[in-house]
Amino acid sequence: MDSMIALLNRSFLRRMLSRIFVALDLGLLQDPIYINIMLGMSFAISAEINFSLMTPFILGDLGFSNDRTATIMSTLGIADLVFRFLSPFVADSLGISARTMYLISLCLLVIARTTLTFFTSFESVMVVGVGLGMAKGVRVVYMGLVIPSYVKIERLASAAGLQMVLNGIFLLMFGPIIEVSQEAILSMCERASFARLRNAGSCCREGGDGKEGRKRIILEVAILTTVER
């Protein structure tokens, strides 16, 4: 009797799991190309949202006033809107697929975000802001076309739903990971600055050019102060 009940429970659970598998079309998770697209898009969306939220703070750390920060952000938004309108015509005239355009936009975003850390003048950052807006405009247009261009129309709803679920998981994970990484990097930089400051002080005490030793100490203090900010 007990074995029959266990068998019935097992068969009921199996039927429920099979129905869930069919209803959600989880067979998509067996497709490596779809998995690759889904993971890449979720990572890109999470990175974009976090970077967009931190952009005003990055500009503030670069020494820009609120007015100049607002000007840069407005220029970025205008470039974004303009290229949302222009990018479909460009892709159509060149015969570029949606996945290729999305990949190009991600490469441009990586380049623009990286170059932002190398410039401090207002004019240079404005140019980088225009580049960011262009890349964001292209990305927004083709982000919603990547999955439909690969998945059949019958499976599109399930594919989009799974993508949204993974987006939510990535967004929940990204914030704490960035915070922990930032604290670890700042702690490492502070330890390195303290070590250099200690070495500079010992060199000054050991003799040599007193002015050089004092200059080195002043430089290390400035570095340490910048890191703490």
Structure overview:
- By secondary structure, this protein is mainly α.
- The protein folds into two domains: 30-150, no CATH class; 189-228.
- 86% of the residues lie in helices and 0% in strands.
- The chain has helices at residues 2-23, 32-61, 66-94, 98-116, 122-143, 146-150, 156-206, 210-228.
Summarize the structure.
This protein is an all-alpha fold and 229 residues long.
Biggest sheet architecture: none
Number of strands: 0
Q: Note the overall shape.
A: flat
**SS-based class:** mainly alpha
In the residues, how many domains can be counted? Answer: 2
Beginning-to-end CA distance, first to last residue: 71 Å
- Share in helix: over 70%
Order of helices and strands: HHHHHHHH
Specify the number of helices. 8
Low-confidence stretches: none
Beta-strand residue percentage: under 5%
- What is the rounded Rg? 26 Å
Features:
8 helices; 2 domains; mainly alpha; 86% helix
Strand and helix map with partners:
Layout: H1 2-23, H2 32-61, H3 66-94, H4 98-116, H5 122-143, H6 146-150, H7 156-206, H8 210-228
Helix pairs in contact: 2-3, 2-7, 3-5, 4-5, 7-8
GO molecular function, one term: monocarboxylic acid transmembrane transporter activity
InterPro entries: MFS_trans_sf, Proton-linked_MCT
Keywords: Membrane, Transmembrane, Transmembrane helix
